[in-house]
Amino acid sequence: MDNMALNNMALNNIVLVVVLPLLAAFLMPVIARVSELVARVLGLSVLFWSVAIIVNVWPQVNSQATAIAIGGFIPPIGISFYVDQVSILFALAIPVMVLLFWPWQQSTSIREYSLMMLLTASSSGLVLSGDLFNIYVFYELLAVASYSLVAIQGKAASIAASFRYLLMGSVGSVMMLLGIAIIYTQTGTLNLAHLSLLAPQALDNILGLSAFALILVGMGVKAELFPVNSWVPEVYGTVSSRLAALMAGLLSKLAVIVIVRIMILLFPHPEALQLMAVLGILGVVTGELVAWRAKDFVRMLSFSSIGQLGLVFLAFSIPGDIGMMAGIAIVLHHMVVKPALFMLATGWSGPLENLSGVARRSPLTVLLFILLILSLLGIPPLPGFWAKYLLMIGLAGQEGAVYTLGIIAVPLAMVIEMAYLFRLVMIMYRKDDTAEVKAHSKWGLAIAGAVGAVLIAIVLQLQPAGDKLTGLAQQLNDRSYYIMTVFPQFHSAESGMQSIK
């Protein structure tokens, strides 16, 4: 068997990162009736196997994107997966983060393990899918897994939070489905590459913009987008720290990437960008203002997360590669820093005043917390600074009232964020030994420490990190490359027409 055949086989194996966790999700409860240990080992084995598959595919995708026609049906007829540097990066992040926040140190119901596998499968399918129908299907599976994981925490508050999350998510799903239906009635197809070819004629109108708005707000429920993010503090405040870390660090970012992919391919219009910018600015301002007023550590982190996601949408609303670079940089930064902060919340949950004097008892933990928030604030030379620097450079290069407002909103949000985070640090350094604080889990501290080390490593390797970021942004923003990868015959026909001329 030659190298090309081996490479194609390895690429086709990427489908297994969706299939295997999905099978495990349904098999684990059945196997658990015989042996819960075997069922749990099965789930872990699938996660490690998924990581191995993606790592094996990575070198091929790193040089060139590929499209996989599942079942051999050529797009736009069949189901297709699109694998490029961005999708493979997030596909790898999914099983890795699930492993990091797996309930290693506690024995939980087999249902939670099964739901974690369903979350893994649906998340992988969401980021790899190349057509709107399957994006919607995987989005719904992810929603089911999310609602259920919140509900099975066993507390009355978590059940109530799950129900409200379900109601808002259901409304979002209907809006998303309606937007997809409008697109289908206008084009007769749901394949993203095919839609990208038809969009300039079929979707450059008020119906097309309406479809984008419906999808944006519908999927924005998971992406913590204003105004459909009211579930965030309630859910994050009632679930375990590791689940809050997983949801805040991973799920919201996957929804953002899918929205951005749809926008680039189907709606590269100024009106769509401005809509994202407006909602992003509102998310930044409202999130940071409410976080400033929060008196509880977890609620403060939750509203801060809303503000950071607002920055993400504002960054991706900037046209050109600079906007893509800023958006990806903020997404990746938030993906690692925010989960680390939520893991620290294991021992610091509750009113902020309860943290009075904690720095005297846990000085190294507080120093780690300060390192994380300094990067979150954008203090140089930490990675968060460079992400916000790209955002401000991108905003400064644009014309229009919306982007001017963004230039004002971002520094204002940074000042507000600095005010409440430094106020918290001052509370921690009070001379007070009376407050009682729960002990942090060793695993949570290890994750936070690893994130701190990653931030420092990026500072030391800033140029290579910047080059990689540039490559990711350029590939994500290249509509023609996406089309030619999925439809190579279109590229051949186009080249033939040019030679005739």
Instruction: Name the poorly predicted regions.
Output: 1-7, 492-501
Mean pLDDT: 86
What Rg is obtained from the alpha carbons, in whole angstroms?
22 Å
Give me the count of strands.
2
Helix content: over 70%
Helix/strand order, N-terminal first: HHHEEHHHHHHHHHHHHHHHHHHH
Terminal CA distance: 41 Å
How is this structure best described in words?
The chain contains 22 helices and two strands. α9 packs antiparallel against α11, α12 packs antiparallel against α13 and α21 crosses α22. The protein has 501 residues and is mainly alpha-helical. It has a two-stranded antiparallel sheet. It starts with a helix and ends with a helix. It folds into two domains: 118 residues; 370 residues, no CATH class.
Strands, helices and their partners?
Layout lengths: L2 H10 L3 H17 L3 H28 L2 E4 L10 E4 L1 H16 L9 H19 L3 H20 L4 H32 L4 H11 L3 H15 L10 H8 L2 H26 L3 H24 L3 H20 L4 H28 L9 H4 L1 H15 L5 H14 L4 H28 L13 H19 L1 H15 L2 H8 L1 H13 L1
Antiparallel strand pairs: 1-2
Helix pairs in contact: 2-3, 2-5, 3-4, 3-5, 4-5, 5-6, 6-7, 7-9, 7-10, 8-21, 9-11, 9-12, 10-13, 11-13, 11-14, 12-13, 12-18, 13-14, 13-18, 14-16, 14-17, 14-19, 14-20, 16-18, 16-19, 21-22
